[in-house]
Amino acid sequence: MSKPSVKVESVADLCKRQIVEPNYVVPGLIAAGMNLLCSPPKYGKSWMVLDLAYSVATGSRFLDMPTRQTGVLYLALEDSDARMQSRMKQVAAGRTIPANFFFTLAAPTLDDGLVDWLGKTLDAAPCKIGLIIVDTLQKVRGIARRTEGVYGYDYRELGELKRFLDERGLCGVFVHHLNKNSSADSMDRVNGTAGVAGAVDTIITLTRRKHSDSETRMSVTGRDVPERTIIIQMDWSTFHWSVLGSEKDVELMHNLQNFRDDPIIKTIVSKLDEQETLLLKAGQINITPSWTCTSVQILEEASQRYGKQSQSPTTVGKKVRAYQPLLMSEEGIAYEYKRTSETREHVFTREIV
Predict the structure, then answer these.
(1) CA distance 239 to 267
(2) For the whole model, what pTM was predicted?
(3) With 46 labelled, which of 62, 82, 194, 271 sits at a CA distance of 20 to 30 A?
C-alpha cells in the first residue's frame, strides 16, 4: 500500500499565496466548518436553528446580524411533519416560505453512511446548499469501535463530519447538549470528552442562572469568530430570539432599573423634588434644594411613602453610597456623607436648572 504524500511548504511561500477567507453564513458568528450549538434541554435550541435556517435561506437578519443568503438543508431528526409545519409557520409569521430551504426527518448515522448520503443529497439539490443543520448531533452518531477510547471515538466521528464540511466549504450547525457539570466555564459542560470541543471549529453555548430565567447568556468561542458573550431573550409572541446587549450593557440596564425602582432612592428623589417645587413657588431660585438626614430618617420616610421597609440603617447607608454616581448622573443630586463623634448624616443637594 502506497503511503500518502506529505507536502512541506515554507511559511514565506504561504504568506505570498492568495487564500480565500472563511465563508460565513452569519458573519462573525457562524463560519464554514463545524459549529456546535449547546445548551441544557428545553432552552429553545430548535427554535433558534429554525429561525437561523429561515433567515439564511431568505437572507434576512438573525439575532440582529446580517446573513449571507444560501440554500439550507435541515435535519430535523427529533420532529414530525406536523410539528415542523406548525413551527415553520410560526417563525415565518405570514412571510413567504423560501424554496431553497429543505428538510428531512430521518438520516443515516455516521456508521450507516451519513457523509455519503449528505454528499449525494447536496449534489442532487436544485440549488446550492451552503448551510447544513443537524438537530441533534447525537441522532447521527455511530458506535465506538472496540479498540478506541471515548476521546478517540468523539474526535474521529466529529473529525469525519468536519472534513466533509471543509472539503465542500460548507457551514454546519449541530445541536448538542450541555451536561449538569457545575463548572462556571460553559465549555467544560459540553457533553462528551474534550475530543468533542477539540474537533469542532466553533462552540456556541446557551446558559442561564436558573432554567426559568427569561434572559439567556450566549457565549461564542471559535477559530474564525471573535470570542464574545451576549445576552439574548426568546420572544414567544414572535417565536424569535432577540439580542438585549452585551453582558456589561445588560448589567448596567438592570442596575439602572433597580436604582429607579428602589424605595430608598425614590424617597430621596421625592424629597428633593418637593423641596425644589416649594422653592420655585416662593421665587427662591438662588437657594439649593437639600435634605440632611440620618439613615433611620430615610427609612422612616420611605416606610411612610412605600410601606414598611425591612432594610437596616447600615444597609441604607451602603446603598446610598453605592448609588452615588447614579444619583448625580440620573437625578442631578449631589451626595455627601458627614460623620461626627455624635452623628452620621447624609446630605443630598440639587442645583435648580
Answers:
(1) 40
(2) 0.83
(3) 194
